[in-house]
Amino acid sequence: PTCRTLDRQYMLGDGLLVAPVFHDRAVEYYLPPGNWTHLLTGESRIGGRWFNEEFDFFGLPLWLRNDALIAVGTSGARVDYDFARGVRLVCGRLEGRVTLEARLVDLKGDPAGVLEVYHDGRRVRVKSPTLPDFQVHLPWAPTVVEVERGSLARDDTRAPLTTRGVIVRADSGTASFRYE
What we know:
By secondary structure, the protein is mainly beta.
């Protein structure tokens, strides 16, 4: 009910809250209850309250809900490219034992692949029967303590997303690791 009258922010899908900056640098927005991760900074916050903040030209409130998945492509300059190739899956904070799925589409809107995410404790496994090259990004996790399948990705900055947290590159369609 608190969000019914809000016209200066919106949900993009069910996992990403966007609050554009309309007045100079200041923005006021409501973050719904739950835990949220800022997509550009990696900061974590507990919602259920209002926030007043100032942003520069390179920032705005982009908050990712817990257990939400956002697929980020490789091109910042084009909108018509193979979305599934080299995709980065950004995960909101994963809690407990959870199974999630991200379905990707091609330029025509046809199915292009599925990424299946399994989380148990501090262990994450992401696999895809059709996508061999992808990355998994946990912007809220401080470090990887063990990589079972895949490798740490340190050379892909993919602006404007945060480079905070951990990024693991898949090995033949699977990334499996444990974080702290």
